[in-house]
Amino acid sequence: MEGRVLTLVAILLGWPAVAVSLALSVAGITYQRRILMLAALVAAGPFLLYLCMTPRFQLAAPIVGLLLVGAVVAVGRRPRFVAMALAVPFVAFAVYVGAITVESWVRLRF
């Protein structure tokens, strides 16, 4: 029972922040606004810090976070594709972790 509650809390509290971060990243790159990318980085921070503490992602999460920092720096300074290329790993990482989360939640439920 405790595992199900923790999974539900992670889905309700963690994933909305990830969705907001993804939306802010898209808006920041589209409109070339560094403040939006910085807000995306702040919103993604707890998610990435949490994943840094898990054995499975302890190496990947800091790298993805640093690439997102690079995307913040690249917005406004370089062509748009550089910021997009630096932000894509966060999107892929979030989708991958989301797929793992949904799969484990379905296994617990059924």
Quick overview of this protein structure:
With 110 residues, the protein is mostly helical.
Note the topology:
Layout: H1 2-31, H2 34-52, H3 60-74, H4 80-109
Structure report:
By secondary structure, the protein is mainly α. It has one domain. Helix content is about 85%, strand content about 0%. The chain is built from 4 helices and no strands. It has helices spanning about 1-30, 35-50, 60-75, 80-110. The longest helix is centred in the N-terminal third of the chain and has 30 residues, at about 1-30. It starts with a helix and ends with a helix.
What attributes does this structure have?
110 residues; mainly alpha
Pairing-aware structural class of the strands and helices?
Answer: mainly alpha
Could you tell me the radius of gyration in angstroms?
15 Å
Helical percent range? Answer: over 70%
Distance between the termini: 13 Å
Count of DSSP E strands? 0
What's the shape? Answer: elongated
Biggest β-sheet, characterized? none
Mean pLDDT: 88
User: How many distinct folded domains?
Assistant: 1
